[in-house]
Amino acid sequence: MATVTPNLAVKYPRTRDSGGGVPPSYGGGGDGNPGDTNDSSDYRERLRRARLGLIVGLTAVVMMFVGFTSALLFRKGLPSLDPQTNTYTRDWVPINLPWALLAVNTAVLLASSVTMELARRDIGRQVALAPVKSIPGISLGDERRFPWLGSTVVLGLGFLVGQFLVWRVLREHHFFVYSGPSSSFAYLLFGTHAVHLAGGVIALIYAAATSLLHRTVEARRIVIDVAGLYWHFMALLWIYIFALLLIAR
Amino acid sequence: MATSEVVHAHAAPQGFIRKYVFSLDHKVIGLQYFFLALTAVWVGMILSLFMRIHMVWPNADLPLIGHIQPEAYLSLVTMHGTIMVFFVLTTAPQGGFGNYFLPIQIGAPDMAFPVLNMLSFWTTFVAFVVMIAAFFVTGGAPLHGWTGYPPLSAIQSAGPGEGLGADLWITSIALFCGASLMGALNFITTTLDLRAKGMTLMRMPLTVWSWFITAILGLLAFGVLLSAGILLLMDRNLGTSFYVPLGTVNGQLTAHRGGSPLLWQHLFWFFGHPEVYIAILPGMGVASQLLSTFSRKPIFGYRAMVYAMLAIGFLGFMVWGHHMFMSGMSPYSAFAFSILTMSIGVPSAIKTFNWLGTIWKGRVRFHTPMLFAIGFVSLFVSGGLSGPFLAQPTLDIPLHDTAFVVGHFHLIMGVAAIFGIFAATYYWVPKMFGRMMSESLGRIHFWFTFIGTYSIFMPMHYLGMAGQPRRYSQFTEVAYLQHLIPLNRVMTYAAVITIAAQLIFVINLFWSILKGQKATDNPWEATTLEWTTATPPPHDNFGGHTPVVHNGPYEYGVPGAARDFVMQTDPAASPSPAH
Question: Range of B171's domain?
């Protein structure tokens, strides 16, 4: 009877290199250049870590919108006092959103999600082919690629412009942020989503810049992969917001 | 997104700015958090001193602020609570010690995302500066308490501090939310992904478990507070009505109508209750670690401790309604919240019994960190036992907004968590700075603080039951409270003495950092990974090699072992003979 603490058999964390005595490969020495390594397992770990970090981070965004959604449902069901009649009424006036324009914006955002996915797969392919291309004398041709990443940035900016137009239309119809609770929530949800999406655009521009900064293809792939997953999440979030405003307007 | 910056891709920095200011090293960032919290705690403590003096001598002229007006008293209440909850109780245990020791205790060279870690600290720093700035703008600091209940907090003209001061307050909280989310992201990813070989989840020290669970709570709670804060800013500045019903302020009808202050209370307490556990869980981890180490015994019921912390974290998200029993909620809801709240007593009791089981028949070494760890358990029990009172609507309704509540949450959330921080400081300063803190000064500090804090906060339970309200700026003229004034005066004396005793701690800390006795690599004969490396730890924590873990974290008094402790990196002890 040795101890009270669990006396487990040695069980190594699941994803480390197999084989005893080989130290885990993270941390690979402080050479100041994260991309400059031949160690592909190190790169895989970094990719997985970045994806894990993104998923954890998105949980926080989800919680924020959970907060907004519960506030919306709470506020929508709330009676308010009418001072003229001194009775309780509902002050939730359904907002008349420019649905056609919003549908176009949605289509643009979904298209950008497709181009983003193509960019993500493209860079994945580049990483896979990198060892082949490093063999002297081997050329795979096909150096000119369709700028999927650039297309995503353009479509993303197009979506933001579309949302700006939605705001203009709302103003013309005298739906201001303070006009009523339904209007306030529409502005709130559109605005918060737009800020998050703008963050995604900045991440994509950064990803594009990494190719100019002579970063290795692996380092670029991590940025593009994570930015791409974030971008898909923004599309999903937008569909959720759209459906929420459609159902609970 | 700092996705391309990976762990220890950065070399040890050379310049002063990269090394000590905008550092990517989790150890430097941990110290930055620690010293930020140390600054904040003095600000918060001086504010509480002003309040205590004002309570018994309402006409006194105080240094710095002169004669305290009723509004100024409310500003003191607000800023004391906010600074203490956010910039001390959340910042020191998690941002400070968690940042410094979580990577080392799991055998990692740094946090998963060092750049994010640096951003997290500097955002917290800016949030603190913005918070302090609220004192100096027109109208001064806000009046609405740390809970920021609307309509007071939602209307600019509601009071002198509710203009720019309140906007700064909310902005600071929003920044703090962002910083905490970045920190939580880093803690969770690091714990899941950067554990050294052999460091299974069930071999992690309980401190790591507590930081990990705290990070999960932060991740789920701060996003909701941020959303609530955005709505509040919109109500204040854009004319929306999320929280503000139809009503008049200073005789004038406001433009708001149809909102509900209860919406804020729901959103705020959905964050606020887990926040209480964010403050106390790291203290529980440290207490577990220290009680085991200084009793030279394995922690009693390691798995039960882990599951109890998980249960406390999980239940913590389902009890926010117990802060709202007075809001006119349905008695059925109140009943559900009440039962759930009291059920937190079960994992809390498991923890307490396991702590007692750990020191039971141990060969206890009463060093200063151990004294504070025992003090933590004592305060946790004393403060915790008044919880089941307040958890019952029938008792909460008369006790609500009395000094009873103040006594309860100060003992359990304030002082117990602070004792966790003190214990951690005395325990880890030798590792962080390479020098031991003075034992004799530490003991003097402990006894003054232990007796002092009990003298301040225990009588509050009596005052509350006798009907003394909280947040009232002046009650010396109130007839039915006259007989309580002498007791209040004793509490103020106790507060002055206790605060003065904290100078002993500060002197001890800085004197020891500079001149203390040199520490060995493992002065406490402890088992976890931070004690296997040099003192203070090198830039990459383990000097070029990565530790491999063979043992659990609390292998003390192992029969047949050469010493009375087995380090986590020691070769696995031979399996015990079958019997």
Answer: 25-531
